[in-house]
Amino acid sequence: MKKRYDLIVVGAGSAGLVAAVQAKGLQKKVLLIEKKRSLSASKFLNDIPCASLAYYASLISDSSKLENAGIKNNQHPDSLKLFNYIRDQVKLLSAHTDAKNLEKLGISFVFGDAAFEDGHMIACSGKKYTARKIIIATGSHPFIPDITGFDSESLLTTESFFRLKRLPGSIVIAGAGPAGCQMAAALSIMGVKVVLLEKGETILPREDDEMRRIIQANLKKRGVTLILKAQIEAAQIEKRRCTITLLAAEKKRRVTAEHFMVCCGRKANVEHLNLEAAGVSYNDNGIDVSRLMRTSVKHIYACGDVTGGYMYTNRAESQAAVAVVNAFGKTHKKMNYSGMIWNLMLQPEFAHLGLTSEEARARYGTFGIRIYKFPYKYSMNSIIRGNEDGMAKIVCRPSGRILGAHIYGESASAIAHELQLAKMNGIKFGKLSFTMHIFPSYGDVLTKPSLRCYIDHYSRNIVINLVRALLPHRRR
User: Which domain holds residue 135?
Assistant: First the structure.
């Protein structure tokens, strides 16, 4: 017997949970289907543990500055306690999204593999369910490359790493994207010997070129061995040691460590959904969607990692909210990616908003943008706190309209959110110089360059310059 719903949400990750709860808030009859016997979103398996590890690494990094103030601190982390504590944090944070709590909200759920029968019907665990609208939010999984001598169970990912009982003494990380760099930064601070491999010519390829060079230099300063243009040829495990054979700079090299972690990106979970039966278009990168989050089938939507692109939790949750509004609302809402923002816990933190300087220059030309920089070493609060590493870089139009911001330093996320608010509400960068900020704080990271922007804008104003030229004191 078929069970009918207003909405079926396939996948209980970050996007799926938001979609299900929001639709229920609109008084819709909702069914949530999840493959695993748990409703734990990927943020509880990956994002939060990594952020927690990075936070405790930052505490260790900060404690190292105590010696500058004459305070001795020689403690090293108890990795068993650390890992147990992180796991306890994850349990605490994920408790409100378990099946029992969702049931209290009135959301129905089933566990099992979901597969489309047609455009409105989904089969799962021997039963069939139909709905007026369907949202696909099946997320993604770590991409594991084929490596001679290694099976997938022998490799660590950012998810399986936190099942270890202790920190390793050494580790090789393949992939210098966001996940690989974050893990390398945190583990190196905690005393782990880290070798970071990247097949490309640079780390963090989506970031501003100048900023990633600064980040790369800082990783090396913290003791991370970085090998670029590295092609892994084979790997071998013997007596709890991993030996990786690779080709770099046309030379063969071998690196050894206790563990080998793969951070080579993620792949959209589209297998076994039988999307063809519903007529949903997809490719190797994920499901094709419009800015309405609508698929090629009018009443079927998709959101989160399964749509490919930037696989961040905040993006997934925003897409889910837009999908529900468009599925059941009377007006349409489009995703606005111009305010796309994320952070990387790199010690210090890095925040990214909008366009990089390279992207802005390609779009508007060299003379169509203005770049304002402010090194943290000139911030009074940075000097007080001993956090002088870092830089803020804001990319604007000549008018002062914010195009992007890239901040590497303490409290980067908080600073970036102020810029995001200004950007999304059309507030020009120069006007932030008139906003009163707390002192001492990192507010001067914005107010000092924004004042330069304000002065630049008016110094280039043709009308103002003409009036100045005509003023009596100018004619003397």
Answer: 3-142+267-336
